[in-house]
Structures are given as C-alpha cells and as structure tokens.
Amino acid sequence: MMLGCSADAIKGILGVYPATYADDDMKSALDALASLNPKPIEACTPVEARQQPTPVDAVRKVMQERNISIASHVAAIQTRDIEIRGAEGHNPARLYTPPGNGPFPAVLYRHLKGNGGRFGNLMLAV
After folding, report:
1. Which InterPro entries does UniProt cross-reference here (predicted)?
2. Which has the higher per-residue pLDDT, 5 or 35?
C-alpha cells in the first residue's frame, strides 16, 4: 500500500489491488498498514502527513505480533550509501542488505525535492 492511499485508489492507478501478487509476508505488512488507519495523503496538512503511519510502522507491528526481535534483525543488516541517477541529477540512497544469499525483495522510498521532501528524508525509516 502506498502511504496514505486506499487499496481502491491504488487499484485505480495500477489496475490491480496492491496485494494481488504479494507473498504472505508482504500481505501481512499491507494488512498491518491498513489496520493503522492512515489518512489519505492528499487530505493531510504537511504536519499531519508526518504523523501518519508508515510501512515501517506496519512491519514493526507484524514483527511485534510474531515476537520477532527487531534488534537482532537490524544488527545483521549491512548498509551502503549509493546514488541513483535521475532526470534532475544524482539522488542519494541507502541500500539495506540482510544476511544471506539473495535475491531479496526491495522497497524504494522516493523523496522528492521541494514540497515532496517535507514528508521525510534518508533517515525516515531508521
């Protein structure tokens, strides 16, 4: 689920419901995010948008419900700062890699320059 978007809104954009092709873990995270009742981002002021639940909050909720220690998982993750070339130049990004052999799923948080940058930064998910 995109931050603050309903499943029906996403279906209107993508043509399918967001969980159509998700595996069980991702479906759990999407369900958890929906249960946190985020307001549609377009209905929020910048201050309200910063207070909305995020996908990170949803994953934390699932991990807590399953008694999975966040600390042990976070300690094993390697990080690397990279740049992604875009139309407006290079964009800083941070790559998080869990232990083990991939391929791994990926989540991309995109922070726009200007007004979009009001809602987060590189440290948002930490």
Report:
1. AB_hydrolase_fold (IPR029058)
2. 35
